[in-house]
Amino acid sequence: MQEAARAQEVIRALAGAANALRLYPPTSSIPDEAVERFVAISDEETRAHGPLRYIVEPQGFRVANEVWGEDSSQVRTFAESLYAHQSGQILIAPSVAGEETITFLKCVGADPALTKEHGGLRNVLVQAGVSHLAVIEVTLRATADESLVGTDIISAPIDEVGEKVAAAARRWARSSASGEGVDEVAQSIGSLEEATRELAANRICEALLHLDESTRVDVLAAARQKDSSGKPMAGMYSVVARMGPAALARLLRLVASKSGDDPHSLLPELDLPPEALEALMSALDPGEQSEEERGVPPDPKVDANAAELSATTAEEEAALRRQIATSSPKLAHARALSTATAVARTHRSVENVRAIGEALPAALQAGGYREVHDALDYLADLQGSADLSVEANTARESLADPRLVRNACAAAGTKAEPATVAMIVEAAGPAGQQAFIEYWAEAQGPTRERVAAVLPRLGERFVATAGRLLRTADPRTSLQLVSMLAALGDKRAVPILAQSVDHPDPSVRLAALHALADLPSDESARVLVDALSYRDAVTRTAAAKEIGRGGVRTALPALHGVLERYHLIERDLVFKTEAVGSVRVMGSPTSIDVLRKVATRSFAFGRSNAALKRLAGEALADIESRSR
Length: 628
Fold this sequence. Notes:
The protein contains 33 helices and 5 strands. The protein is mainly α.
């Protein structure tokens, strides 16, 4: 944990220097002070623990298997700059200087498109003389050189590096037999920046261990051959010396037996530090020791030790989950989309926008909702672009798969933000919007509530799709659509809801009236007023009730007209009772005269008429008391 904290402090200091260099003018002393602070901190850490290596993430750095820096604006900005240059790693070697740091930061802050034209950030840094700060790019650049020198040792597959190392040893044997040997291992490592040399040497050593044993023996045997100057293949020796004592001891025994030498005679050829040499000699000559001398206890407690070793702690389980997450398809597909989006933002082109469209479906299928949100947000910005709007729309349409939309709906409110799901539905077009509607119709309980949070974020196209389906849907689906349009809360849905008031099914008509009352507008008020004259009594009554519930005051004159119509034998008392209730709820003084007429009528046959007079009297008293 302490090592991770120290590593974080170094990259934080470098990000702070980058920020100071970007914000302050050349005449200010603040950038120089920030650079000096980074040099001091990095020098102390690298001299004590060796070169530092960080994995570059879209908005931070991976340090000790944990992504760090997303909550720091300086670190996040620095990571985004490196990511835009397609840099996957950054390395910091000991003895980095201030001028070198400033040059490095200026190269990182340059336009990625311009840097790409000059061969990429790594090539620009090498040309600028930066060697103690290095980057490893995500993609490999093609090269005509098939030798080890022309191979990107750090990024190439380990088996490929092993094959190139074996071929380099064979070429050394051929060239040394006729003159001065060609040491490709020394050349390839020496051509790298100071910060990457140790990493490259370790990777070549790892590649050697991936070779089969006989090939490994042939490699060292070839490297032992001396050229015309009497020197062996020093580059290969420096790599072999990095092997573990047991693996190196076995290799020396096999090479010695092949040439008829004593394994100890090979030791002077290796340049090993004293402690490594001592460990290697112990591996070559394991002395006869008793179990007690070797530290084996009298009672090893095998069962107890096995149980202890097989148990996992919470920290170990968390580490395992992180490793699983790191190797998951989600990370791979999401990172591909994130990289495509970052490149397109820095270098606008048809090809880069197409790359986003190609990466979108896989990232969404894998659950990379944050990366999908960022990509769709960028494509939305291109909608008004004269040169890229067509490609942007094509890229968005790559999500027009109902299965993808349904998966996104299922993740709403849990793995995906409602705003992200809404963007996916909009981008998927009519097919995706219909899939969303079908999912809504099937959803129940908490799932319906989570999907409902997406509705307010959907736009006009969704309203049009819902209206088209409503014209041909069965009553059950129509009821769901009306409910959805009501939850949408968009006044653009009013014309569609108005058409639904004429639906053959009464439940759909009542749901449409309820929704219209929740969407106050001149058109919704007109529809509610027209519904007071509907041929069906249930619909008329519902319209009167919804006018009061929605507080549609522009409908008061129509309600007054309903109450003023008087027949000796009243047949629509339930309708008028709801009208009285709505008038009372709105409490307008203009209703006083009408209510007084109803409450004081001389002729009121039957208990229903009497009840209507009583309700009108109570409403009158209530409004008058509020008007005083």
